[in-house]
Amino acid sequence: MTEKTPPDDELNLNKPVAPPPELVDHLDDEQREPEWLTEATERPPETPHIDHYDDEDDPDRWQESEDTAELAANEDESAPEHPWSQAEHDAAEVVQLKIRRQDDPFSTPYWQLFDIPSHERDNVLSLLRTLREHPITGSGERVDPVAFEHQCMEEVCGSCAMLINGRPRMACSALIADLEQPIVLEPLPKFPLVRDLMVDRSRLFEHLKRVQAWIHVDGAWDIHQPGLRIAQQQWARDYLYSRCMHCGCCMAACPQYDEHLDFVGPATLAQVRLMNAHPNGRATRSTRLHAIMGDGGLSDCGNAQNCVKVCPKEIPLTTAIGELGRATTVQLIKDFFGSSEP
Known about the structure:
- 32% of the residues lie in helices and 10% in strands.
- By secondary structure, it is an alpha+beta fold.
- A hairpin with a 2-residue loop joins β6 (193-195) and β7.
- The chain is elongated, with a radius of gyration of 38 Å.
């Protein structure tokens, strides 16, 4: 006679089975099954955990969320700041930055030290970006993030220029391995300060407007004529000056340039030379030369040649100033004899 198989709904293979009562008396205490297993086939439900209990009539009400938040706040205040993990410290070299800070143009400047982990091939700008995420000094004090400018990260825009160890240069091309520590960062001098490492370079663009450093184009429509041809040698010479990104490094190093003086600076003079050499720019060549023949123009250059030493693009600025000196002399003679040629 075959034994009947219980239906599927009565099968429970995961259901624990209690041992027979006559066997339980002969088991040691360690071999006994728990009472809940022998008395019941299922584990009783756990007591529900109260996350939040708020009863206005109960003076002893307990709110776990508030107590937990208060406890966490006390732990944050007592524990020191550790912005960098131990793994970051072990995998990188810690570099010290000494930054000259100023909250606004009228406040007193002050210095702050920061210890930042640096990896191979890091530059000053990458360290400043890391510091922006964790603005904590070497003593563990959390401060406001350092204000600075950057855009391209490829030494093209010129916005990240600053004083690095006393020399005007681009932060995106200043490698940490080539700099002495501590690395001292200051805002670019000769320009009005905005905050920290940010300066206002709008005065530089006002100088470009003064000398009309652009090419006048008669509309944007097709004139059905090919462009003017430029000799390859002339194109190669002009290209050197077209690389100027108006970063202001040359003006920061120039002893004759200052925000309280009228000198237009070496970068502006180089653009005059570039535009006057262009075939379309020769039509207004005399206008640009007259703009630099007066006060604040070419005669204010003291020939210190600091500009050509700090230019990140190695533009031959002194060569441009020499060429403009000859061009203004010729223009002065033309003006004296009443010549109408440009």
